[in-house]
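Input sequence (208 aa), recorded before submission:
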Amino acid sequence: FTPSDGTAGSPGAAGPGGSGGAAEPLTRFQQQIPDGMGGFVTATACLEGKYYTLANGPGGGSGGCGASPGAVGKGGGASIAAFVVASAGLSFETSVLQGGAGGRGGEGTFGSEPTAGGAAGSTQGIAYVGAAAAGSPGGRAGISGSGAGGSSFGLVYAGTAPVQKETTAKAGPRGEGVPEKTWRSTVSGQEATLPASVAGHAKDVASF
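Predicted structure, token format:
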């Protein structure tokens, strides 16, 4: 008869960072070489296999932060009119054992929104440098489930059933579960579904 709480969701993962932009390689350059007669000649040198650049590519954007899970839904409490344990010989006479309504299950949550990825670095107006990519959004948090509905019993006993003389045991309404819900992230566009939780039981007499 312990309330059945929902299960806690896990935190979302951080989004991956964006890739850096491509640099413009410098494959050739000109230099002045002495001609041996007091003058200079202009020569073109090849830089194949070298790593000289005219301009570096911009940095990629940082990845977004993962979402944090929300609180779980608490299970509804049970209502039991008479709970009998190790009471052999007990009897109820001219009575009505009326259980109340079971508690409704608490609603789970989808967690917080992840953050968007950071913007890519600027090319600073250099047209021949390749653009960088923005960071990806953070990951969605796991769903924290809803609690189950509580139960209602008129009489619950362990061992020998108590005697009922002109006595009626009646359960009340069972506690309802939480209906299914859907959600869509405004950051990543991801969709998620929070499953429905089960309702409680309603039974006039039960043993355990």
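Checked by second reader. The chain has a mean pLDDT of 84.
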